[in-house]
Design a protein that fits this description.
Length: about 160
């Protein structure tokens, strides 16, 4: 608790993970563990200790217990029941990754095409470019708010 007060984070509380928005939740968990200088517990494999009573072993066990408690504290109750049986904090996060991690996807944004013919460029070249853009948009399954028409009429 002293670390939380020292950082002025008494009101800092993450929302519990309930099965949705895992990627955002995990980024917040990692950030919190980094603040407490405990991220190494979940970012690397459990070390092999030759002496189970050594200071190094005890420090790792204490850090692992903190990491496990930290993660479980920010899980919904139905998930705590499942994951509290795991021995290591890393094992909990790895299992959550396996079940909930979604591929990072860039959200599709709207964009506006401002198409204008250039006076100093041949019209047929511009029409071909417009048709190419139109066929690319259909192939890439872009959704266009207004149908893109590539027909050309000759006047005069």
């Amino acid at each position: 608790m002293n670390a939380i007060k020292a950082m002025g984070m008494e009101g800092f509380k993450l929302e519990s993970f309930n099965g949705s928005d895992y990627n955002a939740w995990k980024r917040k968990i990692v950030f919190g563990m980094q603040l407490f200088k405990m991220y190494h517990i979940v970012s690397s494999s459990k070390p092999i200790f030759t002496n189970l009573n050594s200071k190094e072993t005890m420090e790792w066990a204490q850090g692992n217990e903190f990491g496990k408690s930290y993660i479980l504290n920010y899980l919904a109750n139905h998930l705590v029941d499942v994951y509290s049986k795991k021995d290591d904090a890393k094992e909990i996060l790895d299992d959550l990754d396996l079940h909930y991690k979604a591929d990072e996807k860039l959200s599709m944004s709207y964009f506006i095409l401002d198409l204008r013919f250039e006076e100093d460029k041949e019209i047929l070249i511009q029409v071909k470019e417009l048709r190419s853009l139109s066929s690319n948009s259909r192939r890439k399954r872009w959704i266009l708010g207004t149908p893109l028409s590539t027909s050309c009429r000759r006047y005069g």
